[in-house]
Amino acid sequence: MRIVFAGTPDFAVPSLRAAARHNEVVAVYTQPDRPAGRGRGLAASPVKREAVARGIPVMQPETLRGSQAQQDLRDLAPDLLVVVAYGLILPRRVLEIPTHGCWNVHASLLPRWRGAAPIQRAIQAGDAETGVCLMRMEAGLDTGPVLLEQATPIGPDETGGQLHDRLAEMGAQVLEDGLGLLRAGLLPVPWVQPEEGVTYAHKLDKAEARLDWSRPAIELARTVRAFNPWPVAEAMVAGERLRIHGAIAVDTGHAAAPGTLLAAGREGIDIACGDGALRLRVVQREGGRAITAADWLNARRDVAGT
């Protein structure tokens, strides 16, 4: 089966490997090289690096709306287009080119968390479970019928990065299962997503990373987990801006104003919230690396024992 694969970030790499396992990946589409690092030199996407290592031709159009870009895809004569976190909008004419249409691996249990950041939003919202869906794409945003899905519980301490890695591997497995069924002519009838339960996972914004102490501690703890490793929660603590890599909610009664430092010791730094307290466990000073709260307190003797 001739497959064209479209993807860009790390999340898509396991799916590219799965697509290439028993099929012919005739081309990989990925976003153009972007400036990265301190030197701001152009860097290839993770998917491009994987494709080059496998000797797969790479295409990097700025858009797929142009007639030439669409003709280039048509000339590849794909049986299927597999899309995983590509980052570009696919016009309806592109969706109609492959013989079997376009499939998308999406990191949520649709219709919950359509959109750009389903992994982080599921943790932030306190969802008990999430998963991956293999969906047949249509013109709407993640609205297409679902071919296969797999659910998984979200661990109580799981971070956005950890869940990302698990779902990337699950997505690859679901894709491989779907491709096997397609080759055998046994693909199940896709089910149409219900209108009820639709939620949108808006793109992460660095402005969201600033913790609002007036919120309940349990919500802030989930935000810290969801935003690890990016954009990483941050807050002012004892007059110093810290990035918060690890924290838990503490069910403690207090009459202090939100943002008040309640206690600081070996177990962490307790900050008053609108409800309960947030115990900071792993922090990062500006220009430094992530350290335990105890190590930060060693450098801040004015705070230790407060």
Automatic annotation (TrEMBL):
(6S)-5,6,7,8-tetrahydrofolate binds at S108, L109, L110, P111. It catalyses: L-methionyl-tRNA(fMet) + (6R)-10-formyltetrahydrofolate = N-formyl-L-methionyl-tRNA(fMet) + (6S)-5,6,7,8-tetrahydrofolate + H(+). It is an enzyme of class 2 (transferase). Its EC number is 2.1.2.9. Residues 203-300 form the Formyl transferase C-terminal domain. Gene3D superfamilies: Formyl transferase, C-terminal domain, Formyl transferase, N-terminal domain. Keywords: Protein biosynthesis, Transferase. One of its GO terms (molecular function) is methionyl-tRNA formyltransferase activity. Residues 1-175 form the Formyl transferase N-terminal domain. InterPro entries: Fmt (IPR005794), Formyl_trans_C (IPR005793), Formyl_trans_C_sf (IPR037022), Formyl_transf_N (IPR002376), Formyl_transf_N_sf (IPR036477), Formyl_transferase-like_C_sf (IPR011034), GART_AS (IPR001555), Met-tRNA-FMT_C (IPR044135). SUPFAM superfamilies: FMT C-terminal domain-like (SSF50486), Formyltransferase (SSF53328). Coiled coil: none annotated. CDD domains: FMT_core_Met-tRNA-FMT_N, Met_tRNA_FMT_C. Belongs to the Fmt family. Attaches a formyl group to the free amino group of methionyl-tRNA(fMet). The formyl group appears to play a dual role in the initiator identity of N-formylmethionyl-tRNA by promoting its recognition by IF2 and preventing the misappropriation of this tRNA by the elongation apparatus. PANTHER family: METHIONYL-TRNA FORMYLTRANSFERASE, METHIONYL-TRNA FORMYLTRANSFERASE, MITOCHONDRIAL. This is Methionyl-tRNA formyltransferase. It comes from Pseudoxanthomonas kaohsiungensis.
